[in-house]
Amino acid sequence: xxxxxxxxxxxxSITLDLRAVKIVMQRxxxxxxxxRTRFVSALVQPLLFLFVLGSxxxxxxxxxxxxxxLRTFMxxxxxxTSTLFTAMFSAMxxxxxxxxxxxxxxxxxxxxxxxxxxxxxxxxxxIATLQxxxxxxxxFFVNVPLTPGLALQLLAxxxxxxxxxxxxxxxxxSRITQVQTVMGLMQVFLLPLSxxxxxxxxxxxxxxxxxxxxxxxxxxxxxxxIRTAVFDRLTLPDSVRAQLNPAITWFGWSVPTALQLLLVAxxxxxxxxxxxxxxxxxx
Amino acid sequence: xxxxxVRGLTKSYGAVEAVRGVDFDVRTGETFGFLGPNGAGKxxxxxxxxxxxxxxxxxxxxxxxxxxxQRDDVRRHIGLVFQDTTLDTYLxxxxxxxxxxxxxxxxxxxxxxxxxxxxxxxxxxxxxxSKVLTFSGGMKRRLEIARGLMHSPRVLVLxxxxxxxxxxxxxxxxxxxxxxxxxxxxTIFLTTHYMDEAEHCDRIAIMDEGKLVALDTxxxxxxxxxxxxxxxxxxxDDEALARLPGALRxxxxxxxxxxxxEAYVPQLFESLGVPITNVSISRPxxxxxxxxxxxxTIRDTESAGPQLPPFMAAGRGHR
Lengths: 283, 319
Hints:
Largest sheet of chain B: 6 strands, mixed
Helix content of chain A: over 70%
Largest sheet of chain A: 2 strands, antiparallel
Strand content of chain A: under 5%
Number of helices of chain B: 13
Number of helices of chain A: 12
Largest interface: A-B, 37 and 43 residues
Distance between the termini of chain A: 39 Å
Oligomer: heterodimer
Order of helices and strands of chain B: EEEHEEHEHHHEHEHEEHEHEEHEHHH
Mean pLDDT of chain B: 85
Structural class of chain B: alpha/beta
């Protein structure tokens, strides 16, 4: 018998689980790198919103946005919603993996399911944030004072948001076995989530029903901090600030930015736990 | 210690009893074939042994670890090759194996040498940098076998390793499995519904309708269903029949059932006294074994088994 390079697999440990998280992420990043066309083509939508819709509508709204360009106003919302599509798409890849069998290879490995799901959630967040970098650069064309400090702050907020959105995606797709089904389901979530988040219009003077729905949408609490970060760097009269970026209020109480971000993180964590529990089930 | 021990295993999906009380052992180092038509409960049993499904009753251990209570230990010590491909076809062969090595937490220094060893064993070392989607069906299956071996499992589970492959590729997969038996200190547990492939196994178990109906070496199983059949054509069949007690006349000629056909035929030529024009010996095949234990040929069960319309049944197992 030839001597085999017998490999002894060590027992499960944090180190091994982290290696699993890392390799799941690494695979997704390699796949994204191989598919650069798709990565870049996801920019089409933000470009359309910002330069076509934004430029077209700004002639209508010139009077009401005061000293600020409509596109500058829309920019934070578009930065936030652009991650929505990428994050959801990343989550969808797990359905793809299931349909093509690769998920099984991951599920039979001697690692925690949570490591695999964490790898997926982090890769979705990372890819969406990388795309966020590209969208961020558009800020130079719409009068956003992009300092390194602002850029970092925005990317951190985008990362947090994309983690939550990928977790939402994972929780939704965990029981689905066909890519086709997900495609349809994502449509149900994507546009309503972005339209009802205050990404494209200010939260002041909304009809009551819309104000309620917007307050129930988790995305609202990510869009607002991102817009606030940008507006903090603009020199604006208080009246314009109050009209275009009013505080989010719960029964008259202004929700502080830190609490909003905490809320997004908590929702993300909860959805992550749901996703893990869904994948934990054994026949 | 046995590589696999199964005691009173049962599994129900709602009202459907897929596995109805199965007991068997797989000895360390043997190649164990698990036979039966689709829907016999093979795949369910395998899923339980691989910790992918929970048993409804009974117990099972693999490589000395309980499949219900020591799931991770079982997983560390088994290699799995599934019926349907579980490769990432957009990655290279090497990247697929590296992914596996990381997921299984292989010691870093062992990854490269082991990678080369398993890829050379299945003849894919030269193709390691190619994306898997450029591979043929046989190459993919070989790569999956290599991946299953990456972490030096004690038990390699092959679920229908040759299904959907052409005969030539099937033969080459078997060459690799034979080599593996010689070169690695490993127990191989495989399922198949090709009877001819069961001949490669040290022992085989036949499963039908959720139960084990037979378990022995291929030779012993064949011996248990009967003797060799010698069929002759002669110039004078009546005379031959008269001289051979126990012989039968059939449409194919005169049939004699004997223990050892090959030794019997030379004697027959010498002593019969009637000129023989044609002779053939047939041995009981595993098909006969399956027939005698289940009352159906495996092909009959195939066509009657899954309740699918023909257009859906046609695509089964070829994904």
